[in-house]
Amino acid sequence: MSRKRRKIILSAIAAAVAMMMLFGMLTPVLGANAASQSSLDAKYKSLQKQLSEIEKQIKQNEAKINANNKKEEDIKKQLAVINKKIEITKQQLAVIRDQINENQNNINNLNYRIAETQEKIDQNTKLYRERVCALYEAGNVSRLQLLLSSKSASEFLSRFEIIKKISEHDTNLINELRQEKQQIEQDKAKLETEKAKLQKKLEEAQAKQADLNNQSVQSAKYLEQLHNINEQLKNSNEALDDKKAEVEDDLREAHEELMRFLSSQKSTGSFGGQFIWPVRGAVSCEFHGYSGHTGIDILGTSGVTPVRAAASGTVIKVGTWNKSVPRRSAGYGNYVVIDNGQDKNGNSIRTLYAHMYDNTIRVHVGQHVSQGEIIGILGNSGNVRSHGVSPAITDLVSGAHLHFEIIVNNHAVNPRNYL
What is the distance between the alpha carbons of residues 391 and 244, in angstroms, rounded to a whole number? Predict the structure, then answer.
């Protein structure tokens, strides 16, 4: 073998070895870049999830606090009614007690009258008996003898009439006293019946008051429980707010870190495919992140962040947002569709860029655009969603992001497979 040929072969071998060494050096770098983005994305999404859970817990606590406040208002109203009933019952009890006292006084008076009348009956009965005995015993002259000793018929009749009247007077007096006693006893029986009714009313009112007092105590205890629960929930929300602030700071740092990483990458498709990222930002919602979501959402600042063509092609559609249509029905808002031709397998590929800022679309239908060319500015037009990302991270009060789709043969595919 000639020296010249040998030299050529050695040079070729050296070049091959150099290429192999270069490839060996590049592979870890590319792998490291991919791993770095994957790690940053995972960190960012983990923080997003934490923040979403914290905000969800705060909202749940606030809902419980509001519900408990409503219960407190209802219980306070019930307590006011109960306390009013307690006051009315106290007044009723006072009236019933006064009636019972008055009734008892009347009964006591009747008992006195009964005793007094009985004493009169006893006294008059005693006098009657004494007079009768005196008639029989006075001068050993009997009533008959008293009549027979009359000296004339007129005296006889006069004596008979006197004896008769004395007897009738005593009998009538005793009978009247007995009737009076009977009437008093009847009146007393009525008062005793009325007293029993009043006593029953008193017992019912006392039972009602005891029940109302128990309701008042239980309601007050429940109010105190609700107050304590609300204090615990408020304390929990204060702690969650502190944790939320920490996670927002971490999320902001993660976002900035991811932005620095993306900015450090070349814009020639170094993300592993033939398309470049249309926006440098974190992905807030993945392909099929929720039902009907046919692209990925990339965060940015509304009215500031430029949107670039992910691949060269021809603009085939430019849509504008009709603000008379509610957001929920406004779809993509301001958007652009680019026909990117066919891939090596003959598949038709189109890209869609949605929710761009009003009056910032820089292309028109039929215009050819190059990869990386600015076609508009990121915004929040149409039906946008923030997907739980905190407004502290980007302009998400209004849900600003780019919705990016890659459509192959009229079917949306995961853009990450091409970026």
Answer: 12
Q: What is the DSSP string of 138-168?
A: GGG--HHHHHHT-SSHHHHHHHHHHHHHHHH
Whole-angstrom CA distances from 262 to 7, 189, 342, 392 are 45, 105, 27, 20
Statement: residue 268 has pLDDT above 90: no
Note the pLDDT tens digit of each residue in 374-402. 999 999 898 886 544 444 444 433 468 99
Topology, domain 274-419: Glucose Permease (Domain IIA) (2.70.70)
| Beta-strand pair 296-299/401-408 | antiparallel
Q: What angle do CA 280, 402, 359 make, to 5 degrees?
A: 110
Token output for 287: 């392909």
Q: Count CA atoms within 13 Å of residue 232 on its CB side.
A: 8
The number of angstroms, rounded, from the C-alpha of 10 to the middle of its chain's C-alpha atoms is 83
Which tokens belong to 89? 């019952």
For residue 254, the SS3 value is helix
399: region left, alpha or beta (phi > 0 left; psi from -120 to 50 alpha): left
pLDDT at residue 399, as a whole number: 67
pLDDT at 396: 39
Q: State the Cα–Cα distance between residues 347 and 406, nearest whole angstrom.
A: 12
Contacts of 402 (CB under 8 A, 6+ apart): 278, 279, 281, 297, 298, 300, 305, 307, 353, 354, 355, 356, 378
Q: Could you tell me which CATH number the domain at 71-234 has? A: 1.10.287
Closest CA to 263 of 251, 278, 281: 281
Contact by Cβ (8 Å): 375, 353: yes
Question: Which pLDDT belongs to residue 365?
Answer: 95
Domain ranges of the chain: 71-234, 274-419
Q: Angle at which helices 153-264 and 3-137 pack, to 10 degrees?
A: 170
More confident: 129 or 182: 182
Q: Give the per-residue pLDDT at 209.
A: 87
CA distance 378 to 358: 9
